[in-house]
Amino acid sequence: MQYALRTTMTHALLASASILAITTPASAQSSAPPQTAPQAAEQETLSPGMVADIVVTAQFREQRLQDTPISITAVSAAELEAKSQVNLAQVADAAPNVSLKPQGASFGPSISASIRGVGQNDFNPAYEPGVGIYIDDVYYPQLTGAVFELLDLDRVEILRGPQGTLAGRNAEGGAIKLYSKRPSGDGGGFVEVNYGIRNRIGIRAAADFGITSTLSARISGVARQQEGFVDRIDYGCANPGSGIASTQPAGDCVISKLGGVGYQAIRGILFWEPSDKLDVTVIGDYTRDEHTIAGEVLLETSTVNSPNTIPAPGIPYDNRFICGRYCNYIGTGQPAGVWVPPIPVDPFGAAGTPLAATRGTDRSLYQGWGVSGQINYKLSDAFALTSITGYRAFDTQFDSDDDISPANIGFGRNYLENWSFSQEVRLNAELGETLNGTVGGYYFKQKSTYDSLQDIRYVPVYPLQFRQPDPTKADAKAVFAHLSWKPMERMTISGGVRYTSESKDQTYFRLNYDGTVNAFLDPVGATYGIGYAGADTLDYNRNGNVTESVTALSGLTAHYSAKRWDYRIAADYRLSDNFMVYGSVSTGFKGGGSNPRPFNTQQVIAFQPEKLIAYEIGFKSDMLNRRLRFNAAAFINDYTDIQIPVLTCPGAPCAARLNAGDAQVKGFEAELTAYPVDGLAIDASISYLDFKYKAGSLSPAAAYPTNPGGVSADDPPVSPPWKFSLGAQYKIDLDSAGSLTPRFDVTYEDKKYAGSSVIGTTRNLNFVPAYTLANARLTWANADNDLDISLEVTNLFDKYYFLSVFDLRGAGAGVRKGRPGNPREWAISVKKKF
Predict the structure, then answer these.
(1) Averaged pLDDT score across all residues of the chain
(2) Residue 606 Rama label (left phi>0; alpha psi -120 to 50; beta)
(3) Which of the 8 DSSP states describes residue 237?
(4) Hey, which end of the chain has fewer CB within 10 Å, N or C?
């Protein structure tokens, strides 16, 4: 069924691409009114030796990047292609003080995201992301599924610093915005195919066509597949005589290749412009991402109380399960588990297949879709109205063998679904040449259900097997205003405010696999010595205080609500036409809630919003007749009530959050684009981050050594302190034979902290090591510039490095594992434009 569905999708996309490639236009369309997000084709056209302008909409209106007093990385479609960047994480790799990394198998198809050291790394829907991600101005509320394919985009904007008044929801660290290429009705389009290492096969295509004189459409699609690069090996087969039974034929011990690719997506856009006062854009998209789970490797094994051994039926857990650089011994199941499934248990087999028949899989499935609509109406020469409506939904299913061995210490079968709805309305006003502003309102609602089967064998009571079908509901309402005023010719003062009211309800269930209440996790009538009695709801006010009491965990609903004002004020001054300096003060916050992973009512721990005030100064400059662009910014962030993870709670291990400390974050970032001579293009960036906890602010409940998984004032930042990128390309003109363009890119990320762990009584800092990566690309284009052939090599020097490291030794699980990045890869691409 799995293969048939994937094949059907691939064939459908291939057929769509063929149809799109030959579609012809009915007529061309006129450009959209100013409220519509600007496109590359509408931006200023300059000579090849000059830095082009990019128009952004960070302050609710079209502005040149160089006129916007915000630290922004804006990447055009041409630059994405030149750098061989196909997903959002690769764009972030070259952006200063930005980190987007795909997570390990325990977190499914999710990312960790941070800007200037502020963000989130846990996919659980009870937590809020600290970086706001937007697709065509529609908020994407989860970290799951957020490694977006860069399908037929016009540009990507990365806004650093809190965007509490502009982007709004949970943009405490910053915001990332993706803008699709809008239909023009010109009959254009492209088809691109590629082939590469490990049977990499891909196709991308788009077509733009006119339907009537006022209606145009654009359809784009992508299909990619590739084998993984981490061998999943049967331990008993590879180690005969070990006492662990083999499940594979002799001589063929590799079960599968982890870290594969199986991605298909399609997007359709309709653009209707019946008059010069009105335009309507409707966008729909669908994504299916099915592949083997992330390839991880075991790095260390130990426990806090009993080094080198964990109780497990007949199989001690120790370093013999460390396999190598690109291999592991995942078992994807627990032999002692009694799997009686009340939820979808085998997403990759026939409907109704018992979970006991599969004992787990090594595959991950994500399916998501969305529809959005934007209406722009020009009320008069001075006033314009914009409405943005969006609905998105996804579901994902993945298994996680956390010990990545046959020792059967921890296993989870995970099912997560989410839907969200948002509505935003803006009224823009241009009141003469010196004053403009925006007022608006925003509404957001979502529901997530995280349903998982867990078999955890490192807790004091063994074994701990349960199901947790926990729904979480959340909503937010906001009103905002932004004003920009030019009191004199070269100065602009801008500012804004936003008022937000939000709430969240999380309901807990701790059940046996057959649906009955788990007696250990939820003993009816037990008080756990905390004096709660008689209620089934915990209500937390904005200070995190419990206002009601409770005895039972299953059926308990924790309610969170908060109200918040955010503000921003900025001033910029042009020392010359090509040099602007600016300064700003801005605020943002990330919502609170309660611990999503309690084992008992004592562990239902509330946390409140964390908050940030940022002070930023910077400049933006174009020099040498616009052959050189150099932008830089420096900042100091006051970061308070930080939601700090803890690994132990009353009664058992857990993964909770506490508002347990404050910090000061300082840093700078700079970006450069240069055309020293015609044909040669150079781009570079560098950033530095200094994150320091304030020692006196750390709560004993989350600070080391009171809590094994806690933090101390001496801990380094969780984002790389230093980061830089450098790229260069040179276009060689071959006259009638076209052109040849070699390109070389290098990126560096400093060693970064991945959280603390404790071995016995010794504190061991857990790091992701520093690494430097190089990519190369050679592109030939014909004289008409409508056909090109490219050879790309990523990780040119075959560097062995890690994207993430996950350490559960402090929680007693005895495992430290890492997700290695892709080794050296090559691919050949052919692209035809129409």
Answers:
(1) 83
(2) beta
(3) H
(4) N
If you compute the radius of gyration of the chain from its CA atoms, what whole number of angstroms results? 27
SS3 514: coil
Residues 6+ apart with CB under 8 A from 53: 43, 44, 46, 64, 65, 66
* DSSP summary character for residue 770: P
Question: Under a CB-based contact definition with an 8 Å cutoff, are residues 580 and 621 in contact?
Answer: yes
Identify the three-state secondary structure at position 546. strand
CA 622 to chain centre: 32
Q: Which residues, including other chains, have CB under 8 Å from residue 683's CB and lie 6 or more apart?
A: 79, 671, 672, 673, 674, 725, 726, 727, 728
Average pLDDT over residues 423-427: 97
- Alpha-carbon span 195 to 661, nearest angstrom: 50
Distance CA 168, CA 58 (A): 11
State residue 107 phi and psi, 5-degree precision. -110, 5
DSSP 350-366: STT--GGGTS--SEEEE
HSE-CB of 292 using CA atoms within 13 angstroms: 19
Residue 132: which of 96, 92, 107, 168 has the closest Cα?
168
Kindly write down the DSSP assignment for every residue of 142-206, as one continuous string.
Answer: -SBT-S-B--SEEEEEEEES--TTTT-TT-SSEEEEEEEPPP-SS--EEEEEEEETTTEEEEEEE
Cβ-proximal residues to 637 (8 Å cutoff; 6+ apart), any chain: 116, 117, 118, 612, 613, 614, 615, 664, 665, 666
- Cβ–Cβ < 8 Å for 459, 653: yes
- Strand, helix or coil at 547? coil
Cα 326 from Cα 135, distance rounded (Å): 35
What's the mean pLDDT in 581-592?
Answer: 96
Per residue in 488-512, is it b (16+ CB within 10 Å) or e — as a string? eeeebbbbbbbebebbbbbbbbbbb
Predicted local distance difference test score (pLDDT) of residue 136:
94
Which of 95, 78, 211 minimizes the C-alpha distance to 152? 78
* Pairing mode, strands 174-180 and 131-135: parallel
- Those residues whose C-beta lies under 8 Å from the C-beta of residue 369, and which sit 6 or more positions away, are 284, 285, 286, 287, 392, 393, 394
What distance in Å separates the CA atoms of residue 354 and residue 413, rounded to the nearest whole number? 13
Is residue 118 within 8 A of residue 635, CB to CB? The reply is no
Q: In degrees rounded to 5, what are phi and psi of residue 163?
A: -115, 40
Mean per-residue pLDDT, 374-391? 96
Determine the 3-state secondary structure of 810 from DSSP. Answer: helix
* Residue appearing with tokens 């699609």: 221
Question: What burial class does residue 438 get, using C-beta atoms within 10 Å of its C-beta: 0-12 exposed, 13-18 middle, 19+ buried?
Answer: buried
Dmax over Cα atoms in the chain, in whole Å?
Answer: 85
Q: Pull the structure tokens for residue 645.
A: 């993870």
**Token reading at 82:** 């030149």
Residue 55 DSSP class: E
Interval 475-509: pLDDT, tens:
999 999 999 999 999 999 999 999 999 999 999 99
- How far apart CA 834 and CA 22 sit, in angstroms, is 9
CA distance 708 to 705: 6
**What is the tens place of the pLDDT at every residue in 97-107?**
999 999 998 89
Q: Are 189 and 833 in contact (CB under 8 A)?
A: yes
Residue 426, both tokens: 């803006």
pLDDT tens sequence across 255-295: 999 999 999 999 999 999 999 999 999 999 999 999 999 99
Strand arrangement, sheet containing 254-258 = 254-258, 230-233, 327-328
**Which is it for strands 327-328 and 230-233: parallel, antiparallel or unpaired?**
parallel
pLDDT band at 757 (very low <50, low <70, confident <90, very high): low
Torsion of CA 53, 57, 61, 64, to 10 degrees: -20
Q: Can you name the residues that pair with 637 across neighbouring β-strands? A: 614, 665
Kindly report, residue by residue over 510-537, the tens digit of the pLDDT: 888 777 887 776 665 333 322 222 233 4
In the chain the first and final C-alpha atoms are separated, in Å, by 36
